[in-house]
Amino acid sequence: MNFKKLFAGFILLPVAIPTFAQTDSLLAGQGADFFKSKCISCHAFGKVLVGTDLSLSKTKTDADLNLAFDRMEAMVGPISVDQRNQLLALIHAENPDGILNPPVPEGIVEKLPGDPAAGESLYYGETALTNGGMSCVSCHSSFRNSGPGGGKLGLPLTGTFSKFGGSGLTSAIKNAAFPTMREPYRNHEITQTEAEHLTAYLQSVDAQPEYTNSFTLIFSSLIGGAFLFGILGVLYRNRLISVRQTLKS
Predict the structure, then answer these.
(1) Please, are residues 98 and 33 in contact by the beta-carbon 8 Å criterion?
(2) Looking at the structure, do residues 172 and 242 belong to the same domain, yes or no?
(3) Domain containing residue 197
(4) What is the tens place of the pLDDT at every residue in 53-71?
(5) Statement to judge: residues 28 and 73 lie in one domain
(6) Cβ-defined contacts of 105-114 (< 8 Å, 24+)
(7) Are 143 and 176 in the same domain?
(8) Is 11 contained in some domain?
(9) What is the mean pLDDT of residues 45-54?
(10) Which of 10, 64, 87, 103 would be a feasible disulfide site paired with 60, CB 3.0-4.6 Å?
(11) pLDDT per residue over 4-20, tens digit each?
(12) Distance, C-alpha 87 to centroid of its chain
């Protein structure tokens, strides 16, 4: 037995283990960056969003996960070998959600590069998006206590900033990662600066409930009812005339 080689192995072993750990940590961090750019609008660790809870993926083999990546390419585009390895490292990390959402010390507000006032103007369509996309309020709720109550096609955005964090939400907006955004913004890309402004605005209203304009709702209902009765009147006009003629005869 070569005792020198054996002794050298024992010396190097403690060094090698941290090296592998550092590599996995680096890959997991890179996986978090990719996850925020492509996956965060539908998936999370520890909860169900649009897609499944990815905490359950820890029990799956890398081969199974790569098959899942193959299916997701239809939604997010090509996923390279390096990106797949990064995602695998993130999924198998001890605390993937902690990597995605590192804790912010209590009392400290995350400083974002965007301007909330500029984001508000973009959100309500007072400033047009550079590439011609529709304003957010067309599909999402309004946070103003006056004027129209906003659209209802998209989900309410209260708490969205807390859920995704600054970088995750900015990336999701820029890449139109949310299901309701994909088609409307496919050919009307939101710029990085616009995404940062919108994220800053959503941070400022994060705990604010959506505004529902009851007057607008009642007015819309009355208009809709009047329109419906008008249509029925036109459709049944001839029928009423025939009934009157029958009664006269």
Answers:
(1) no
(2) no
(3) 116-204
(4) 999 998 999 999 999 999 9
(5) yes
(6) 109/203, 110/165, 110/166, 110/203, 112/166, 112/170, 112/196, 112/199, 112/200, 112/203, 113/196, 113/200, 114/170, 114/193, 114/195, 114/196, 114/197, 114/198, 114/199, 114/200, 114/201
(7) yes
(8) no
(9) 84
(10) 64
(11) 554 455 444 454 444 44
(12) 18
Residue 90 sits in the same domain as residue 130: no
Say how many Å lie between the first and final Cα of the chain, rounded.
122
As a whole number of angstroms, the longest Cα–Cα distance in the chain is 122
109 falls within a domain: no
Name the domain count of the chain.
3
Are 124 and 199 found together in one domain?
Answer: yes
CA pair distance 170, 173, nearest whole angstrom: 5
DSSP 186-212: TTSPPPHHHHHHHHHHHHHTTTPPPB-
Distance of CA 17 to the CA centre of its chain: 37
pTM: 0.62
Count of helix runs (H) and strand runs (E) in the chain: 9, 0
